[in-house]
Amino acid sequence: MANTNLPRRIIKETQRLLSEPAPGISASPSEDNMRYFNVMILGPTQSPFEGGVFKLELFLPEEYPMAAPKLGRICLDILKDKWSPALQIRTVLLSIQALLSAPNPDDPLSDNIAKHWKTNEAEAVETAKEWTRLYASGA
Amino acid sequence: MGQSSSRSRRRDDYRQTYPQHAPLPPPPPVQPPLTPPYNPSSRPNFSTPYYNPPPAPAAPYYYAYQPQPSSSYNGLMRFFESWVNNSFPSYYRPNQGNGWLNSAAPSPPAAMPPYTSFSAASSSSMVVAPPPYVEHQKAKTIKNDVNLHKDMIRLEADVLNPEEYLVSFVYDAVVDGSVTIYYFAKEGANCSFSSIEEDIYKPRSYPFEKGTARKFCQPSGHGIDLGFFDLESLSKPANGEVFPLVIYAKACGPTLMDGQSVQSAATHLQITLAVIEKNNTGAFEVKVVKQILWFDGERYELQEIFGLANSSEPIDDADDDIGKECVICLTETRNTAVFPCRHLCMCSDCAKSLRLQSNKCPICRQPVEKLMEINVNLTSSDK
């Protein structure tokens, strides 16, 4: 039912995401709800997250694209006050991929990890690599 | 001796006419270096959030200048776009037919559903005042009989008079006309121009022939010795109104043109106001500051629109229509430009719904002051 009256914008974005996926990113809509996407982002090379597969759920609210997609707890300004309807699912996911390449400990989800990152980055990177191996190695 | 003293006097004159710049503020106090808790060399930009929004494009420089008041300039913002061959500058008048702006006050954006625990930034963004009134205007198309390509204006050394430079440019014109070259000229009433340095360089007029992408070059011997002026005075408009180089192109229609007479109301002008800079190879370069159109007794300023070039073809059903489509619905042809940033990025319906939710340009996030609908396709059919 939720798929009736799906705006053409969402249909077009979905088609393009499927036909021309961005490198290292896949996003496919749920069959039940075309506003709900299962997303996988590969950890960028040269980052502590390399080799990891990071799964996300993305939901397009009714107001989309006037309001940002919902993505859970990710500290990214374009998902909040810097959202613009010219942005798309693809650009949001590319931004998240970039965030993996350049984490921002000044706007952290976890204060402890940010503190660790700022006081001993080398050690924090090792932890990130270890956790990527343990918890994000695909399958 | 006489020449060199007049030269130095002239420089002084120019200096006096420059706006006085306020002295720079004192440099900020030097912070004592913080002891880095981590190796700073490994992450030199560590504290800079990587996701700063891209800088908004620099405000176009011609916005820095107030349009010259003229008898016909009535304060409406005028908008133009030149169009090769069948140029069509256009402008919008407010409140023409599309009265949606006068409807009830826009409702505030719907409250954001879940995820309220995001951060302070997200909660502050929910307190949104209704967007201010934004004019939504429709473009009118007018024909521009002569158009100088503003990136194709050159100063070429005169082979026979190596000290002197000749103006050349590429233009399109649908009728014959004449062009007058001024140095250090100032706008008067009804788009007339006069040089404040006539004793040094007397403005000269030349006929041009109609055609597209034609090249004009001043004849040898008619050039100017730019070395006579200091670079400072060439590189900016004195008092914001005396332009170092003015190219005044007049479309005369089939019958011309014996010098002074025949100045009817149907005169169509395009006037290019420019400064002259030296590039790093030492060559002089012309930089256009603004272009003015005079059309049926009205004065317009020419402004480029970002995104127009890609929108003139109708959208087909193929997937290669990115670049012409509205950035919001990804479906309709974009036909509405945002001002003052001049991003043509939306269809009129999406512009309307954006207007109810935000006052920011989708492309650059600058506040929207005005929306203009420009239907390029209409003009391609009336060729």
Strand arrangement within the widest β-sheet of chain A reads: 1-2-3
Q: What kind of sheet is the major sheet of chain A? A: 3 strands, antiparallel
What's the Cα radius of gyration of chain B? Answer: 25 Å
Task: Please report the distance between the alpha carbons of the first and last residues of chain A.
Answer: 31 Å
Taking pLDDT < 50 over at least 5 consecutive residues as the criterion, the unreliable ranges of chain A are none
Structural class of chain A: alpha+beta
Number of strands of chain B: 16
Kindly report the greatest chain-chain contact and the residue count on each side: A-B, 40 and 40 residues
Walkthrough of the structure:
The complex is a heterodimer of chains A (139) and B (383). Chain A is 35% helix and 14% strand. Chain A has a single domain, classed as Ubiquitin Conjugating Enzyme (Roll). In chain A, a hairpin with a 6-residue loop joins strand 1 and strand 2. The radius of gyration of chain A is 16 Å and the shape is globular. Chain A has four helices and three strands; from the N terminus they run αβββααα. Chain B is α+β, with helices and mostly antiparallel strands and 383 residues long. In chain B, strands 6, 7, 8, 10, 11, 12 and 13 form a seven-stranded antiparallel sheet that branches. Chain B has a five-stranded mixed sheet with strand order 1-2-16-14-15. In chain B, strands 3, 4, 5 and 9 form a four-stranded antiparallel sheet that branches. The radius of gyration of chain B is 25 Å and the shape is elongated. The N terminus and C terminus of chain B are likely disordered. Chains A and B meet through helix 1 and helix 2 of A and helix 2 and helix 4 of B. Chain B: Its EC number is 2.3.2.27. Chain B: It catalyses: S-ubiquitinyl-[E2 ubiquitin-conjugating enzyme]-L-cysteine + [acceptor protein]-L-lysine = [E2 ubiquitin-conjugating enzyme]-L-cysteine + N(6)-ubiquitinyl-[acceptor protein]-L-lysine.
